[in-house]
Design goal:
Elements: H1 5-9, H2 24-48, H3 55-78, H4 84-106, H5 115-129, H6 134-147, H7 154-157, H8 167-174, H9 183-197, H10 209-233, H11 237-264, H12 288-291, H13 297-306, H14 312-328
Length: 351
């Protein structure tokens, strides 16, 4: 009925309840209705707001504006105009917008005909976010859309999807380097998939010098907290600057998006390739402090799973007009127990 192999990975093996899954035909009908509502609202908004046509300019403007705002925060703290406890969250805001731009670029939403501009923007984003390089993330994010909620969903599993709440999930939510704790399980799932699919699935892209350099820099960023934090505690001036203006904001940004994203997705006991089961609307008031630092991700990300090619700001604009259509077609809202269930869709197990 659904794939259950991944349930054993996280130690949670519920039986299928007949009330938890709907007929696939009903599911497809609901997905079509939601897609139609989202596209209709997008069409209405584009007709109403002519400035939405200038998508490349908007993307570049947000990219430049985000770096400018981050720079202003840095100058304000360095000159004593801002305390550290204000500088960290204020710097996190433009970094969260940069993260959303990276996601849009992954889907070719800006400068599709000029990939060199995308690469320039990617370089800036890579250096700003201090995490996995955007070119690698592009591959695993496209995979995420194809296998969302399955054992080979690399992107979400590396931020905690499918793990029970505990030290491991908390660690990799806060520090990206701790994703290494779940990497063996992810690799095992990938090997199993390749073995089942046959030799043709084993082809890999060439690793050129630039790609290798990006991997090296990603590793450096991953190890940075283990050097900077102890040095800052010991009072090293350079480390305090890096912690307040760079590592601290990026840690807050990563922790909020990882927690909200891994809480809004489902995993393990859902049918493959069925958008209806992949996500929920997460907009409970308890999440509001976190949503500030991930551009309201929990409330609107589900729209992206239904209609992929929308810039993040347009998705926010579309959200109020399609919320009721989502709910009317069975989308879950504020299922706060999902983390306690290790992101399983099934709420109760049959005896």
């Amino acid at each position: 009925m659904v794939q259950s192999a991944s349930s054993a990975t996280a130690g949670y093996i519920p039986r299928m309840s007949t009330t938890d899954l709907i007929d696939p035909k009903v599911s497809r009908t609901r997905v079509r209705a939601i897609n139609k509502a989202i596209r209709a609202e997008e069409k209405r908004l584009r007709a109403k707001h002519g400035w939405l046509r200038h998508q490349d300019a908007l993307g570049l403007g947000i990219w430049l504006g985000s770096f400018a705002l981050w720079g202003l925060v840095c100058v304000a703290w360095l000159t004593g105009a801002l305390p550290w406890w204000a500088a960290i969250p204020l710097a996190t805001l433009p970094l969260s917008w940069i993260h959303e731009l990276e996601h849009d670029l992954i889907h070719d939403l800006y400068f599709k005909q000029r990939p060199w501009v995308q690469d320039v923007m990617f370089v800036g984003i890579f250096l700003a976010k201090a995490t996995l390089d955007p070119w690698t993330r592009r591959r695993i994010h496209i995979r995420h859309h194809k296998v969302s909620g399955q054992p080979v969903d690399i992107e979400e599993r590396l931020i905690g999807l499918g793990l029970p709440m505990g030290p491991k999930r908390i660690l990799l939510t806060i520090v990206p380097a701790f994703a290494a704790l779940v990497l063996p399980d992810v690799i095992a799932a990938l090997k199993a998939q390749r073995a089942e699919a046959g030799p043709r699935s084993r082809a890999r892209g060439k690793q050129g010098p630039l790609r290798i350099a990006a991997h090296v820099l990603s590793t450096f960023f991953g190890l940075m907290p283990f050097v900077v934090v102890p040095a800052a505690i010991l009072g090293q001036g350079w480390a305090i600057v890096v912690l307040v203006l760079y590592l601290g904001p990026n840690t807050l940004r990563h922790a909020t998006i990882a927690l909200i994203s891994s809480s809004s997705h489902y995993y393990g006991d859902i049918p493959g390739n069925d958008v209806h089961y992949q996500n929920q609307i997460l907009d409970h008031w308890l999440t509001w402090p976190l949503q500030i630092f991930c551009f309201n991700f929990g409330s609107t990300h589900i729209i992206h799973h239904y209609v992929v090619l929308q810039p993040f700001y347009l998705r926010q604009m579309v959200s109020p007009g399609v919320r009721q259509a989502l709910l009317d077609n069975g989308v879950r809202r504020n299922d706060l127990g999902t983390v306690a269930r290790a992101n399983r869709w099934i709420k109760t197990a049959e005896a």
